[in-house]
Amino acid sequence: MYIGRFxxxxxxxxxxxxxxxxxxxxxxxxxxxxxxTVGPTADAPETDNPYVAYNxxxxxxAGAVLGNGSHVDPVAEKLxxxxxxxxxxxxxxxxxDYEKDDYDTPRIAGVIGDDAAFVGIVRRDALLxxxxxxxxxxxxxxxxxxxxxxFDATDAEAAAxxxxxxxxxxxxxxxxxxxxxxxxxxxxxxx
Length: 191
Ligand SMILES: NC(=O)c1ncn([C@@H]2O[C@H](COP(=O)(O)O)[C@@H](O)[C@H]2O)c1NC=O
Prior knowledge:
Largest sheet: 7 strands, antiparallel
Structural class: alpha+beta
Family: Belongs to the archaeal IMP cyclohydrolase family.
Bound molecules: ligand FAI
Radius of gyration: 15 Å
Order of helices and strands: EEEEEEHHEEEEEHEE
Protein name: IMP cyclohydrolase
Strand order of the largest sheet: 3-4-5-6-7-8-9
Domain Inosine monophosphate cyclohydrolase-like: 2-182
EC number: 3.5.4.10
Number of strands: 13
Helix content: 10-25%
Shape: globular
């Protein structure tokens, strides 16, 4: 089954996977201590698609944010400003809305906050923001309503590996984020 980009978020762990039929030449790099970025590999063909390079993980003092596009930045900024995680997700997802591509690709995001974790998705037909108390998956296609997901990883690399090796088609690269004391550990892997 092809579900496109997806994330898994629980109270202390998160993971994000780029799956892609159209843009497989991508990797996740560490932009700085608090940021992981999806971008093209050196051999990637040039593209003017605005949706395939973005920060996919950002850590703030108020929690970690994961997602499949440029909305990750305003979610992180609002979280850092003191917005509740639910409101940071809802406002950023609604203002950017689904992607204006051939598929009306949804935007998905998750927050691992100090007190609670949330996942969100904005689709053409809905905006959903759910608090989660167990690992929960949401994807751009097919699995576009949050659902519980069996997830065992307890460190960042294992989290990235677990989603990278999940039985969904066209794996490209993945990121993991795990609560670590007062902060978070980050990791990324290529398929
Ligand atoms: N976030 C991403 O990494 C990403 N990769 C591809 N897309 C969008 O999704 C469309 C379909 O891509 P694909 O056939 O690889 O699933 C692309 O034309 C692009 O507009 C993305 N946008 C949202 O998921």
